[in-house]
Design goal:
homodimer; alpha/beta; Aspartate Aminotransferase, domain 1; Aspartate Aminotransferase, domain 2; 2 domains; three-stranded antiparallel sheet; 14 strands; about 40% helix
């Protein structure tokens, strides 16, 4: 069984079989034609007034999407680079921090904090569940006298398919002096997020998820409380120095040469998101997720997660079929790319992303392909039920 | 006088006046149509076998272009991020290093080394001149007993328009235990560069210069000697961790989500470069530079630099005209973007980039525009002489 097996000398062969590729992964995601067209425009110099004007509009749009009046800083980076920036810029060696670990991306934050010599307290949450905010309250109260300087939480954790309750956690963290830092790399523009109202101090995101662009840009949104911590923070940093990025943004400049074509793309994607309406974008993702879950469970498959994020559905593999086999077959027969499990879930689950440039019929198409492939593998289920249930959600 | 003044509500107005934008800056540079077309292709997941096949070809191509058998590591980053990676991955706090500072990008390396607590020795070179390799030999011999662990040099320094003699410097550094680290961000695929033959241990570059792509990707090429130093290096690092990037490249994976569309672009650009022939690419840049310098000096303008790089021409502003005025006028009238001076040269020089997707007639067009604008400013020169001299070089 091959997974998207491809002879290196024949890189384009699979495209001849399936000229239409459906990237149903939880990032990177599909890119709208409008965004592609925008990215074709001539490269303008990043120190030109023209580019500054563009960057101002991107800044303004991202403020609306993060729901913040704070500073927006833009880097050529993946989301992980922005997580590192959140550690480097607000803390000093030995600082005590609390990482809420609800999956692969919580793990990543633990590793970054350790790489920079922080004293890391980890609230381990069973994979597939969101954190109970009361446990954070309890951990913070246990640490009295040993000041926790930052609480790190993942908004939507695509490795397990859960969403943490950032609003409730914010109410708890704001009662302390700790900074509240949120990885909303996959959450932004896919699930409700209100940085300022929820008391988030530092939000991190990237271009290739809800923002419907190719990967290449990372974003940090920073509150006043965070800037105060920044002035005391002594960890070494250069490329991801947020304070110099802030200085540059006063003239709508990035500190280093940015991924200009992707800035063009984000500029266009923001227009698409705001014209659809951010609330409608969130509602669309909710609807996609409900339809997908209804279809999946009607096919006699089970969901891995208990608390569901609206941008990804994590499905336990049916008995006797590995994720690699199932994903390989669906790619081979239909040109649909689903994601494998990450870390300890590798080959045990498959992950269907429905974020960004995805509509209701993409869900139906994916379920249709899955139905064909599941039957091939001898999975027992009520044929047609998955599509019927999903259509009921879509219709309703 | 405005420089590319642009009403923010009318972002596209300047394009109506000048639908053809000529970006004659020393990076970012113009992007070929073939590369743009490649970047339009559907986003493929970075953990797919398809993408691994692509990455293998990019790795192989970059090895040819760096002229190395060493490891090639790919990051979503600007060139500066790769300079930081070169510091983080091979040194420990307090290590003594020598930075050869021939301009703005030499300065940048000094600042990064200082940010990470290295003991930085700086060989200051007058701006506009290449370093005399004998001075490096002298400095290294003065430091006997106080081991210099790394020598940092900029290959082509676009702020001043010079090129350092990497081959000669390599002969000196290889007599010591120090690593030889070279910023060839602008030099790669514009000027002769032979990493292995010249004894370079770490080479850094990026996508938006000689590689003719939009900015977004950084590249590091690493020798065996450098990996030995890496194992002892204790500076904190995560996103730019080269050893984990090396592990990933064993399966043709990047550690984090890469700028996929720009990988497509680099894949295509490599094909263009290798089909032109790397030696021919270098020779083309030489010819462009000779034609540009012949034209500029025939227009009664003077060059800022003494030792010339083939990818940029740095020109002293004529009496009574600032760089801002001259660049603003040439943009306004002809849609050509020239770069300002950097750092201490701001407004005193203007910089004409001729790297990447630039041909002989782009040089002629730029000189033509310059002739018109210089006359408007009342500059005294032999009209027509610049174009005539440049054409003579091109013809010859």
């Amino acid at each position: 069984m091959v997974i998207d097996d491809l002879d290196n000398e024949n890189l384009y062969e699979i495209e001849l079989n399936h000229p239409k590729h459906r990237l149903m992964a939880p990032g990177p995601t599909m890119v709208p034609e409008r965004v592609k067209m925008a990215m074709l425009r001539s490269i303008r110099h990043h120190r030109s007034q023209y580019f500054a004007g563009l960057l101002e509009q991107v800044r303004d749009g991202l403020r609306e999407i993060f729901r913040t009046d704070g500073d927006i800083l833009i880097f050529t980076s993946s989301g992980t680079g922005m997580l590192e920036a959140a550690v480097q810029n607000f803390f000093s060696e030995g600082d005590r921090v609390l990482v809420v670990n609800t999956g692969h991306f919580g793990d990543r934050w633990v590793r970054i904090c350790q790489a920079y010599g922080l004293t890391v307290r980890v609230l381990e949450v069973e994979w597939g569940r969101a954190v109970n905010p009361k446990l954070i309250e309890q951990r913070l109260s246990e640490e009295v006298g040993r000041e926790i300087k930052g609480v790190f939480v993942t908004h939507t954790e695509t490795s397990t398919g859960i969403e943490n309750d950032i609003e409730e956690i914010g109410k708890i963290v704001r009662e302390t002096d700790a900074l509240f830092l949120v990885d909303t790399v996959s959450g932004l523009a896919t699930s409700r997020y209100q940085m300022d109202e929820w008391g988030v101090d530092v939000s991190l995101s990237a271009s290739q998820k809800g923002l419907m662009c190719p990967p290449g840009l990372g974003f940090a949104a920073v509150s006043e409380k965070a800037w105060m911590a920044n002035r005391r923070a002594t960890l070494p940093r250069f490329y991801f120095d947020l304070a110099s990025a802030k200085d540059g943004m006063a003239d709508f400049k990035t500190p280093w040469t940015p991924a200009i074509s992707i800035i063009y793309g984000v500029h266009e994607a923001i227009k698409m998101i705001l014209s659809e309406g951010l609330e409608n974008v969130w509602e669309r993702h909710n609807k996609l997720a409900m339809a997908m879950r209804a279809g999946i469970t009607a096919m006699n498959l089970t969901l891995f997660s208990i608390n569901h994020a609206p941008n990804v559905t994590v499905v336990n593999c049916p008995d006797g079929v590995t994720s690699k086999e199932l994903r390989g077959k669906i790619l081979e027969r239909f040109g649909i790319y689903l994601a494998d499990g990450q870390g300890r879930l590798k080959d045990r689950v498959f992950r269907i992303g429905h974020m960004g440039y995805v509509d209701k019929l993409d869900v139906i198409a994916t379920l249709g392909a899955l139905e064909v492939v599941l039957k091939d593998f001898g999975h027992i289920f009520d044929e047609g039920a998955g599509l019927r249930e999903a259509l009921d959600v879509i219709r309703g």
